[in-house]
C-alpha cells in the first residue's frame, strides 16, 4: 500500500547501446506492437497506482531521437531526462542526482524490461518502504552451474535467484552506495548497495519481466503483449 | 559430424506429473500449434541428421493416453517406451536399461523442451563423442543471487550458466553414474555423472530451448513456432 510519507520515483535506465542485438538501433527503441519498447516500459510505471515520478536516463546522443519519437507517437507521459554515463553505474548515479527529497523510494528499472507487472512494482515499492530495499527476482527453473578454475560445478538450484528489476531502494541507501567508486562486479544496483553495507531483500518478480537482449526476445515480448489484449 | 563408430540415442524424459501448471493434463501433452508438446520434442530428434534412436520415458499411467494420441495425430515416429519412476533419476535409469550397446552416445532430453534446435543437438552429440559428455547451457542474462544462511549474496554473473538439455553422454558414463543411489541434489543428469567422478563439459544451448513450466511458457512457445513457419 502506498505510504504517503514517501515520494515515489522510477529511474528508467536506457543509457546502453545494445551490443548484443543484430540491429543498429539501441534495443530500447525497437518497436513491439508498434510502440518503442521504452514507451511500454515508461507506461508500466506511469499507469501504476502509486504514480511514481519518472526519470529517464538516456545516452546524450539519443536524446534528439527520443524527442522525435515523442512527437511521432504523441507520447506525453511527463518525465525528466538524465544523461547516461560510460557504465550502467554512472547512468543510475546521474538519474539519482535529479532527486532532491529525503523521504523518497526509488525503483531503478531496465528500459528493456517492458513487461513488468503492476503487482511486481507494488511489491518492490512496499517492501523497500518496510525494509530499505527490494529486488525483483525469480527462482531458477533450470539447473545452474558455475565456472571454476578447474572446470565447473553444480550449484544448489533451490538457492539460486535470477535477478530482475525493479530494484527499489530508500533514497539514503542509493545515495550512500553511489558515492562508492565503480567496480566491475557492479552488474546491478543490488550489488552496489550490498557493497555499501546494506542487506538485500529479494521480492517476487515475474516470468514475463525478462530483459530484451536477443532478437528472439522481441518475438516473445510481442506474443505476450498480443495475448494480453 | 556424425561418428560412425557410435550409435546415437535420445532418451526423452516425460515421466513427470507437472505440478506447476494450472492444468490437469501433464504438461508434455498440452498442445502448441495443435500438436502435443511431446510430439514436437520427439520430432526435433527424429528429424536430426544423426537419426538417433528414440526412447521415451512415460509414467506408466500415461501410456494408454499416449497411444490414443499416437492414433489421433497419426504420429508414426518409431520409439521405444520405458516407464517413469518416482524421481527423474529413476526415469532416466529405466530408459537407459533399454540400451545394450557399448559404443553409444545418449542425449537425455526434457520432454517439455520442444524448441531445441538441430544445431544444439549436433553440438552436444559431437562434444560428447570427443570429451565424454556435453551439457547444453546458456549464460545468465540476469544478475544472480544465492540464498545463504545470513540472507543472500551476489554471485559473479560471468561465471553462471543456466543448464538445459540435451545432456549428452557416452553410455559408459551414464551406466556408472546411474548405479549410484538417488540423492536429492540430482536435479539433472550432469549432477549424477559429476558425482560419479566425471568432469562435465558445457556446450552452447539456445535461448529458445526453454523448459515449459508455467502457463505463460505455452504462449511463448506458440509464438516462436509461428514465427518459424
Helices and strands, with pairings:
The structure is a homodimer of 229-residue chains.
Chain A: E1 7-14, E2 31-32, E3 35-36, H1 37-46, E4 53-58, H2 63-72, E5 80-83, H3 88-96, E6 104-110, H4 118-131, E7 133-139, E8 143-147, E9 152-154, E10 160-170, H5 171-177, H6 189-195, E11 202-204, H7 215-228
Parallel strand pairs in A: 1-4, 1-6, 4-5, 7-11
Antiparallel strand pairs in A: 2-3, 6-10, 7-10, 8-9
Short structural summary:
Chain A has 229 residues and is an alpha/beta fold. The first copy, chain A, has helices at residues 37-46, 63-72, 88-96, 118-131, 171-177, 189-195, 215-228; strands at 7-14, 31-32, 35-36, 53-58, 80-83, 104-110, 133-139, 143-147, 152-154, 160-170, 202-204. The first copy, chain A, has a single domain, classed as Spore Coat Polysaccharide Biosynthesis Protein SpsA, Chain A (Alpha-Beta Complex), CATH 3.90.550.10.
Which regions of chain A are unreliable across 5 or more consecutive residues at pLDDT < 50? none
Main pleated-sheet profile of chain A: 7 strands, mixed
Number of strands of chain A: 11
Report how far apart the termini of chain A are: 27 Å
Q: What sort of overall outline of chain A do the alpha carbons produce when their principal axes are compared?
A: globular
Named at the architecture level, the CATH assignment of chain A is Alpha-Beta Complex
Question: What percentage of amino acids of chain A are in beta strands?
Answer: 25-35%
Structural description of this entry:
2 copies of one chain form a homodimer. The first copy, chain A, is α/β, with parallel strands linked by helices and 229 residues long. Chain A has a single domain (7-228), classed as Spore Coat Polysaccharide Biosynthesis Protein SpsA, Chain A (Alpha-Beta Complex), CATH 3.90.550. Helix content of chain A is 31%, strand content 25%. Chain A is built from 7 helices and 11 strands. In chain A, the strands form 3 sheets. The first copy, chain A, has a 7-stranded mixed β-sheet with strand order 5-4-1-6-10-7-11, with helices on both faces. A two-stranded antiparallel sheet of chain A has the order 2-3. Chain A has a two-stranded antiparallel sheet with strand order 8-9. In chain A, helix 5 packs across helix 6 (189-195). The longest helix of chain A is centred in the middle third of the chain and has 14 residues, at 118-131. The first copy, chain A, is globular and about 55 Å long. The mean pLDDT of chain A is 93. At the A-B interface, strand 8, strand 9, strand 10, helix 6 and helix 7 of A face strand 8, strand 9, strand 10, helix 6 and helix 7 of B. Strand 10 (160-170) of chain A pairs antiparallel with strand 8 (143-147) of chain B.
Amino acid at each position: 500500500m502506498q505510504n504517503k510519507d514517501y515520494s515515489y520515483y522510477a529511474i528508467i535506465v536506457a543509457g546502453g547501446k545494445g551490443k548484443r542485438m543484430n540491429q543498429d538501433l539501441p534495443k530500447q527503441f525497437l518497436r513491439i506492437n508498434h510502440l518503442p519498447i521504452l514507451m511500454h516500459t515508461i507506461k508500466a510505471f506511469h499507469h501504476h497506482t502509486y504514480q511514481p515520478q519518472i526519470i529517464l536516463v538516456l545516452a546524450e546522443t539519443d536524446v534528439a531521437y527520443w524527442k522525435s519519437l515523442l512527437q511521432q507517437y504523441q507520447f506525453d507521459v511527463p518525465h525528466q531526462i538524465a544523461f547516461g554515463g560510460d557504465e550502467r553505474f554512472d547512468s543510475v548515479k546521474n538519474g539519482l542526482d535529479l532527486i532532491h527529497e529525503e523521504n523518497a523510494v526509488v525503483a531503478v528499472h531496465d528500459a528493456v524490461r517492458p513487461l513488468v507487472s503492476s503487482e511486481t512494482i507494488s511489491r518492490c515499492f512496499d517492501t523497500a518502504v518496510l525494509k530499505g530495499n527490494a529486488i525483483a527476482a525469480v527462482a531458477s527453473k533450470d539447473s545452474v552451474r558455475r565456472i571454476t578454475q578447474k572446470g565447473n560445478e553444480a550449484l544448489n538450484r533451490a538457492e539460486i535467484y535470477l535477478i530482475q528489476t525493479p530494484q527499489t531502494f530508500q533514497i539514503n541507501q542509493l545515495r550512500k552506495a553511489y558515492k562508492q567508486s565503480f567496480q566491475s562486479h557492479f552488474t546491478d544496483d543490488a550489488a552496489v548497495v550490498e557493497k555499501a553495507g546494506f542487506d538485500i531483500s529479494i521480492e517476487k518478480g515475474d516470468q514475463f519481466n525478462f530483459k530484451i537482449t536477443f532478437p528472439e526476445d522481441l518475438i516473445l515480448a510481442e506474443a505476450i503483449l498480443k495475448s494480453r489484449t
